[in-house]
Structure prediction request, 297 residues.
Amino acid sequence: MTYSAVHGLGTVRQLWQLLEPVHALVYFAPESYDEAAALGYPTDERWPLYFAYRAAPLGPAEAELVSSLFYSFSPSMVQRYVDRSWHTAPPARVLAARAAGADRALRTLLGDRTDSPDLAEAAALARRAAEAAAIAGRPLAAANAALPWPEAPHAVLWHAATILREHRGDGHIAALQAHHLDPVESLVLQAGTGAAPVEAFESRQWPADAWTAARNRLAARGLLAEDGTATAAGLALRTAVERLTDELAAAPWSALSAQEVARLAELLLPPVLDIVGAGLLPAQGTLGIGMKYDYDA
Prediction:
């Protein structure tokens, strides 16, 4: 029996929704920008920091590798930022800056909660799940799992959230490919579902002709209507992608009992509300984190 059959895919999705803000704050917090600026990265936009921080566990990776793993970003965008990343600072220094930024940001956002027994308990539970994540075929998860574990509970929680987030992301790419959605098609269809405004998806910087061509391909498959909204078939396909993504993300949680999973969700809610309530994270993003899918339909 699979984990999802015991606990339900809704639980897997809930845990992602709770842990994603913990990971994502490193790309938006002022403390992260300070650390990046100290290395010499421009901070007038977030992309130099984002590509450096997220790709650093891979070592001095070339743009082609990063593009294949980040999937939804246009290759020209990836090349523009990655080509200059390791000329600015080597990956080891970027990783140190990333860890320092996450540490400082969490201390600021969580305050006294940082040293609480509840946070330490949440970190320990999340670490057990992260350490149970299989890394075969999951390059970003593997790269982060290979890094040493920090000691402070809030840093442990961030590292665990990062491993689990990238484990899910690696699986999501597999799910998209299994349903024959290339990078730009995945964005166009997600935009068509109303997950976020089209402008949010355009941040991946695909040229207009690539977006139009993908839209035409999806329309030819009966997945998009003339106005660009997803058809019933398009919604069904996107639901199938999310279901497979959740199924592929479920295995690490088998390390925890049902009671421990419920306890982790309970423990995560207050610090996540602190993070989200700070207003640092975008209200809507390309992940569709607030979308609900009916897997039984």
Q: What stands out?
A: The first helix runs from residue 3 to 7.
